[in-house]
Amino acid sequence: MSVIFAALVATGRSEETANSAEVWPGADWQVATPESQGLSADGVAQVGEWHQKNFSKTGLVIRHGRIVGEWYAEGTKPSTRLAAFSTTKSFSSTAVGIAIADGKLSLDSTVGQFLPDVQPVEKKPITVRQILSMTTGVHNHGPLNSMPNPFTYAMVEAPLDAPPGEKWNYNNTGLSLLSPLFKQATGQPIDRFLDARVFRPIGIGSADWSWQQREDLPIPYSGLEITARALARFGLMVLRGGRWQNERLVPADWLAAATGPSQPLEKSYGYLWWNNTAGKWPGVPADAFASLGKFDNDMLVVPSLDLIVIRQVGDEGADEHHVNIGDLFRLAVEAVADRSAEK
């Protein structure tokens, strides 16, 4: 299938000159030229070319709170929701951070406290910290997402491969424990909790997202479908330390911990976020962090450059196209005209 890839031009309010005050999207985003926000127009064009060559369906570059590059293909548009896959994990992490601040649970809370019937009993000491850092030791069941009862499986059937905390293993089965635990701790499922505490306050409406369910609970590792612009709103809130305008939505210290190394076994992994402290993405600043999803449905955040980069492809035919997402991240960073002034 041929791909028609076009930049979306000035779909929001045009803003040609940067100012020192923080900019936040209202009902729509401000759209600016790359040059007005300190980026090279040629560099941003190279980002668009990367998207076209790599079968992206949406692409966004946000700087200083404004859209400076936006691309859509294969019939997608700003209102198109696409599967986020494991980028969902970073949303789940954010819900936990808020619930901890509310006093509903802690990083040291155990599975046994909230799910006393979990089996085998060796799962009871697993902590929320271990769930979020991929160190539960729970066996990762490959076909989990195709099961009608992944939470029941995770709670009472999945065995342990290692004692909790001793092994890092990117693991959706262990993370599945989070959804029933969170509901028990807070009285709300993760998706409804986020809708009230984050989505609506930052302007993500009900048409902008949906969340796949199993056993009447949201899938915490891969269930979110979301528009590129809504994903960018979430990224901007995180970039600005959990604030939206003058309102504190997520504790800044939680986001700092979640987007840095969470344990020594895999330093590039935080609490359901990836980070660049160990140089995972060459040519990208060390303070960068990202949500990474299957088929490279990804979002990069670079605080030192006030930069957000988004790529979505959903899942249609995505397994046929293998990309190096680090190349996209590097191109976007290189488009910043004077990086030395940002450090």
**Biggest sheet: strands, sense, closure?**
7 strands, antiparallel
In what range is the share of β-strand residues? Answer: 15-25%
Q: SSE order, as H and E?
A: EEEHEEEHHHHHHHEEEEHEEHEEEEH
The top level CATH class name of the largest domain: Alpha Beta
The 3D shape can be described as globular
Q: Structural class, from secondary structure content?
A: alpha+beta
Describe the model.
The chain has 343 residues and is of the alpha+beta class. It folds into two domains: 5-79 and 227-241 and 278-342, Beta-Lactamase (2-Layer Sandwich), CATH 3.30.450; 86-186, no CATH class. It has helices at residues 41-53, 88-101, 111-114, 128-132, 150-157, 172-176, 178-186, 190-199, 228-239, 252-258, 325-334; strands at 5-7, 13-14, 30-31, 58-63, 66-73, 82-83, 209-211, 213-214, 217-218, 224-226, 243-244, 247-248, 274-275, 289-291, 298-302, 307-312. Strands 1-5-4-16-15-14-13 form a seven-stranded antiparallel β-sheet, sandwiched between helices. A three-stranded antiparallel β-sheet has the order 6-10-7. Helix 1 packs antiparallel against helix 11 (325-334) and helix 2 (88-101) crosses helix 8. The longest helix is centred in the N-terminal third of the chain and has 14 residues, at 88-101. It is globular and about 60 Å long. Residues 1-6 and 9-20 have low confidence and may be disordered.
